[in-house]
Amino acid sequence: MAVLAEEFEVAPRLEQLGVTKPELLQVVRAAVGARRNATPFHPLSAGGLLAYLAGTEQLRRVFLPQGWQTCRRDNIESIFHPELGIKIVYQNADRAGDSIFDPIAVSKKGAGAARAVELGQYDLFPESREQEVAEITAATWYLFVYADGPDVRAELSCPIAINDEQFDQFHERILLVQKGEWDSPDPLADDAPPVDFEVSVSRKN
After folding, report:
1. Which of 35, 116, 23 is nearest to 64 (CA)?
2. What CA–CA distance (Å, rounded) separates 114 from 182?
C-alpha cells in the first residue's frame, strides 16, 4: 500500500486524480465548520450529519464546474469524473490522516459501498485508460475527515474492500492533514480576540 504524505508526492498524484489539495481543504473546512454548528440542543448525531451534508455539498460546489458530475449510484452520494473514471465520496471518520494506521469510517458500510469498492478495482490509474469508464466500474476514492475540536485530520484514500461493514485495507492513501497540522482557527469562535476599530468623529456644521 502506498501512503503519500510529503507535498512533493501528494501534489502531482492529486493532479492525476483531477483535484488539488487546496480544493479538497475547502471541503474539509466546510465540513468542520458545519460540525461546529451543532449545539447541545441538537440530537447527538447532529454534528456528524451536518458535516456530511456540508462536505458532500462542498465537493459538488468545488468540482462540478470543472467537469465532475453528481453521482448517486447505489444510493451513495458522490462526484464522478467521466473522463478520469473515478468517484469521490465524502466520509466522516473516527480516524484519518495517520501515516501508520488506516482510516476508520464513523458509519457502517453497506452492500452499496461494498459493490462500489469491489467494482472499481480493475484499474486505479487514469493515465492508462483508453476509453471513458462507466460509473459502475469507476475507482472509488473517499475523502476521510476526522474532527475532534481543534484536532482535524484528513486524507483521500482508495479502499481495497469492505468487510464486516468497515473498510478493509487500502490501495493508496494520500494524507492531506495530519495531527497538529490544522492551522485554521474558526474566525467566528467566541474566544476570538476582539478587533479594534478606529472611529473617526467629526462635528457637523
Report:
1. 23
2. 31
Of the candidates 92, 81, 87, the one whose C-alpha atom is nearest the C-alpha of residue 30 is 92
Instruction: Calculate the alpha carbon distances from 161 to 23, 74, 110, 126, 156 in Å.
Output: 27, 16, 12, 20, 16
What does the block give as the cell for 123? 484499474
Instruction: Quote the cell numbers at residue 140.
Output: 472509488
Apex 190 CA angle, 187 and 193, nearest 5:
65
pLDDT digits (tens, 9 = 90+) for 87-135: 999 999 999 999 888 898 887 665 666 656 665 554 555 544 443 445 7
pTM metric for this prediction = 0.78
How far is residue 151's CA from residue 77's CA, in Å, rounded to a whole number?
26
Instruction: Tell me the C-alpha distance between 113 and 167, whole Å.
Output: 10
In 3-state terms the chain splits into helix, strand, coil percentages (rounded to 5) of 30, 30, 40
CA–CA distance, 167 with 129 (Å, rounded to integer): 26
In the block, cell 448517486 appears at 72
**Closest alpha carbon to 120 in 92, 154, 156, 80:** 80
Q: Give the amino acid at 53.
A: L
**How far is 13 from 8, CA to CA, in rounded Å?**
9
Per DSSP bridges, beta strands 69-71 and 78-81 are antiparallel
